[in-house]
Design brief:
The complex is a heterodimer. Chain A is α+β, with helices and mostly antiparallel strands. Chain A has three helices and six strands; from the N terminus they run αβαβββββα. Chain B is globular. Chain B starts with a helix and ends in a 6-residue tail after the last helix. The chains are: A alpha+beta, B mainly alpha.
Chain lengths: ~220, ~220
Amino acid sequence: MASRETDANGTRVLRAALTLAAAVAAAVVLLALVHDATRERVASSERARRAAAFDRVLGGIDYDNDLLADRIEVRDPELLGTDASVPVYRARLAGRPVAVIIESVAPDGYSGSIRLLVGVAPDGRLLGVRALQHRETPGLGDAIEERRSDWIRSFDGRSLGDPPPGRWKVRKDGGDFDQLTGATVTPRAVVAAVRNTLLFVERQGAALFEPMPTANG
Amino acid sequence: MDARSIVANGLTTQNPGLVQLLGLCPLLAVSTTVAYGLGLGLATIAVLLISNTLAALIGRWLLPEIRIAVFVVVIAAAVTAVELTLAAWLPAIHAGLGIFLPLIVTNCLVLARAESFASRNALWPAMLDALAMGAGFMLVLLALGASRELLGHGSVGAGLDDVLGAAWSATRIDVFPERHGLLLVLLPPGAFILLGLMLAARNRAAQRTQLRRSPAIALGDSRA
């Protein structure tokens, strides 16, 4: 009768729900285990990638301190592209500041934010820029990666006066920087972010190299 | 189903990219070079294997109404686990595949095989089906990747070292300078057009084969 069918139906629904819950629970446990097992290695390979990227954005200049240890956190949502605090690594040679590396962000990429590593000399000259992390279109926007194309090297040696302020844009917008084949939004975002980072460095000036690390760096 | 028909299904008669038309989103999005096609193809085969194996093992114990939901959970978990494992132990391959790994979750081919084949068959046929369907998908990826890279970038084989290792960095062939390339084929509309042409060619070939084998049936002659 009606009530017995409803009961059987109810049991079936309950069984289905419990099975799904069990599957989700199993997946959660599996992923927690995998995440735990891989966390250290992923973190260390991330550190290695960052260290290798540091070398490339410093353009081969000499330094003798521990970059990873000599860092401060800064915050400038307007110029650094993120509300979160941004790490700044200072490179020194015999105590003298020789470069600063900023992990700024281009928030207006084609598919979200692009994390950049920008190396700047104390005189405001760009030593190098690299894309750390992005989700731009494979084959188009991902040409900002060094392994895909030379485009990112077009920032080497530039500064706020070179090109002049009005020309710190992609060619399509009346500036001096090439865009990429089939991708304008991505290079536009990166050019703007690099320019803003240079502005930030100029405004902060020597303060970026303070305070000196307390331990012997 | 016997092994031969499973393989034939995956590679030709039920080819995911040209017949079933499944997984078009990742197919069209990342098939811009041979290397990308290869990377996505290999990663898809790996995920298909895991997913079909699990579906074959647990499928028969699932009530029909939640089977698909459970498979979605399984596939997403498998892809995430594979991604984390690669990031930890094979970081070079993980960096090379990059965005392709998460993209596999959007490929409805994986869910389709789990639901319509793997969960209703034994373990070995399910695994063979995974390999066959994955290979069929990869064939289309490679064909599209080669034509789009050639017409759009003017090269063939750029970036293979990202997927296969440093030894392959020299295999690139540059046919003509990139600035003479046809931008359209690198963008989604061009991918659709090229895929459409491949579909038309495939359909024509299939029609001809059908005509040769049984003309009456092919021509719709009801007297046969």
